[in-house]
Every structure is written in C-alpha cells, then in structure tokens.
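CATEGORY: protein folding

GOAL: derive structure tokens
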Amino acid sequence: MDLQPNLTRLQIPPGRQGTQKTLEVMAQLARQAAAIPKVQEIARRLPNPEHVNAFLRMYWRIVDDPFYAEYIRAPLLQLEFWAAKGFLPGDCDDAATLAGALVVATGWPAFFMAIRLPRMPEFSHVFLRVPIMFGFLDIDPIVPAEHLPITGYAEALEVWI
C-alpha cells in the first residue's frame, strides 16, 4: 500500500471566490472517489448517512493544515491511511470530502456547506449536509455532536456533489 500522496497545486483566489473554488474541488474529488471500487466497498458497509457519520466520529483525529497552505486529502488516500494506521487524520475539508464520497457512493444526495461566522471576514468551516426526511443531517466529526446542527453562522456557501 503506497501512502505517498500525488500532489496537485492550485492557485485559489482569496475570499468568497476562493471558498467557492475550494468547494468545487472538494466536490470533484468526492464524485471521483465515489466511483472507485475500494471506496464503494467501504460505503456498502455504511449504508446510510448516519452510519457514515458514526464511522467518521469513531476514527477521526483533527490534524490542522500548515498555516501557509490548504490541503485537501483525497478520499481514497484517507481510507488507505485508515486501513494502515487505524485512524483518519485531517481538518474539516478532509472530513467533508471523505464523507461526501462515502455518502454519494451509497446513492444519497449531499452538498458541502461552508460557513462564515458572525464578525469574521472569511469562511472558516465546511461540513457535509445530507437531505433526510423532514430536514438535514450534518456530518461533521470536527464539531462535537452536541453542537450540531450549526446554526449561528452569518453566511453560507453550498456546493452539491
């Protein structure tokens, strides 16, 4: 198992435009991963969004990106790391991208939701939102479950997978 990442460098514009571009890259990674047999195999063991949420909460370890870069870990690489090391490392965009791949692989619709908190100039958090009967399920292993759903944001951007 090769855990060496294949890095792609993108120039992301600042502000809202940059957040939109990042969400689009995440959606592309999630869609591509959802079609990979290894991702589909794991998704079959997690047949609905609640199971994906529980899986991520069980194995996620928050690992921040360096201050000078934004990394988005590809879902297949994350799952290979989990198989080798027993945990899933990353920040909110990594968790959302993996959750998106697993949820879409099971046939559920989902979208990424980036939020800007009140009095903050930039978007600072992203999670996966899945439409379920009579509402939404927010999949976000970064935020404690008792603090979900996140409602106190000033602005949100949504990108469907």
